[in-house]
Amino acid sequence: MPIRIPDALPASSELESENIFVMTEFRALHQDIRPLRVLILNLMPTKIATETQIMRQLSNTPLQVEVELLRADSHESRNVSATHLETFYRTFRDVRYDRYDGLIITGAPVEQLRFEEVDYWSELQEIMDWSSTNVHSTLHICWGAQAGLYHHYGIPKYALPEKATGVFEHHLVEPRSPLVRGIDDTFRAVHSRNTEVRRQDIERVPELEIIAESDEAGLYIVKSTDSSRFFVFGHPEYDAETLRLEYERDLARGIPVAIPRHYFPGDDPSAEPPNTWRSHAQLLYTNWLNYYVYQTTPYDLRSIGRDVRSRSGLV
Question: Which end of the chain is more exposed for a tag (fewer CB within 10 A), N or C?
Fold first, then answer.
């Protein structure tokens, strides 16, 4: 897919080096086509790495996508320069009157706090409320998924006895869902979290359905029955080395953490971990973008909010 991002964004050169088609702003402006507008609310501290990871996943369909980056204005980011944020990121004040085909809300390393204790929780609540009327389809990732379920449906999160970190085997619960079209009946996916959402709480809400889960790691994909909200409790966008970097970071901080499960060959942290989740991750993002954004979003963005729940029969 020709993904349209600012020419100077660090992700641009990284993706081009991987032979991914990144469309220049000049070329995009001279095409007679309406690109999909996708907003990424990036709550991760490693902002540049996360930008690149998610944009890589959005880059493998024939669609043209215009990506914008959003940050929490009520939180001070310490791991990225102020210049980068000012150049490439918008705040909610900047976008609150805009409409988007898709919104992605990332994870954040704040799972062990109560939602109300997160310094940008009020702002995130406002953004999630706004997404119900100004965004056609929203994809929530990891802590973002837990936050979305808590805010929209009152579903709590629970602390785990130890961090769920590793690459786990999963199975499809709803294999006929277009969201998992082309994904194997069993597949591997990345988790990295200290809390969980429980199946029995999802089953109590008729507006939600479980799409995929793991016997070892628990829930993986949940969606709303009207296909406007998607919740992924892992990190399908992670690079091969991301779990290793997190593991080494925790060790350096003196945080007791187990070796990520089923990740290092022979459970040897000195061994190079292979990426065994790449194909399912690509299909997951591509299917969401195609079936639940492109196929059903109104051509006139001004119509989003008036008929945002019409999904043309997709389940």
Answer: C
Residue 83, burial from CB neighbour count under 10 angstroms (0-12, 13-18, 19+):
exposed
Catalytic residues: 142, 235, 237
78 known member of a binding site? no
Question: Which of helix, strand or coil describes residue 238?
Answer: coil
pLDDT tens digits, 77-98: 777 778 888 888 999 999 999 9
pTM of the model: 0.87
The architecture in CATH of the region 3-157+194-234+278-299 reads 3-Layer(aba) Sandwich (3.40)
23 and 64 in contact (C-beta within 8 Å)?
A: yes
Q: What pLDDT was estimated at residue 269?
A: 95
| In the chain, domain spans | 3-157+194-234+278-299
- Closest to 91 measured CA to CA, from 121, 62, 71, 68: 71
Q: Is the pLDDT of residue 314 over 60?
A: no
Beta strands, E only, the chain = 3-4, 22-23, 36-41, 65-70, 89-90, 100-105, 135-141, 158-172, 186-196, 208-214, 218-224, 229-232
Q: Is 157 annotated as a binding residue?
A: no
